[in-house]
Amino acid sequence: MISDYFELQWRLARRRSTCVGPHLDDFSTTLTDAGYLHFTIRGYLRAADHVGAWADRHRIALSTWDDELLVRFARHLTRCRCIKSNKGIFGDAIAGVRLLMARLRARGVIAGAQPSGRPLKEDRREAGRLPHSR
Ligand SMILES: [Zn+2]
To answer: How many structural domains compose the chain?
Structure first.
C-alpha cells in the first residue's frame, strides 16, 4: 500500500488521482515483496506519480503506454519544471517508470513491450550500477 510509504492524506489523494493512481497499491506491494528498500520504493512511487501526472497533462491514455512513452518521459525529465521539490533530481525516475510499466504489462493494463533498437541514455548510464534492492 502506498500509505506504507507516504503519510500525508492530501498527497496520497493526489497520487491516487492520476491515471496510474489505481495501480499504485499493487505496484508498491510488488516492490515490497521483491525486497526493494523503503527509500527506493518511495522514489519509484514518486516517479510513478510523476509519469502519471505528466501523461494526464498530455492526455496520453494509460492503455496506450508503450516504450515510446518512456522515451518521451525521459526527454521531459531533462527540462521538467513540474516538481519543484525535487530540484531537478530524478536519478531513479526512469528505473521506477520502467518497473511500473513492467508491472502494468504483467497485469494486462498496457500492451507488451516492442522489440527496441537503441537503448535509452538512462540505460547506458545505469549499466554497471548496483541494483537498488537488497
Ligand atoms: Zn515533470
So the answer is: 1
How far does residue 77's CA lie from ligand 1's centre (Å)? 6
Calculate how far, in angstroms, residue 83's C-alpha sits from the geometric centre of ligand 1: 6
**Interatomic CA distance for residues 100 and 106, integer angstroms:** 10
Structure confidence at residue 130 (pLDDT): 47
Indicate the helix (H) or strand (E) that contains 68.
helix 67-77
Averaged pLDDT score across all residues of the chain: 83
Q: Which domain holds residue 102?
A: 2-133
- What percent of the chain is modeled with pLDDT above 90? 55
Q: How far is the CA of 52 from the centre of ligand 1 (A)?
A: 10
Bridge partners, residue 133, by sequence: 36
Q: How far is the CA of 31 from the centre of ligand 1 (A)?
A: 23
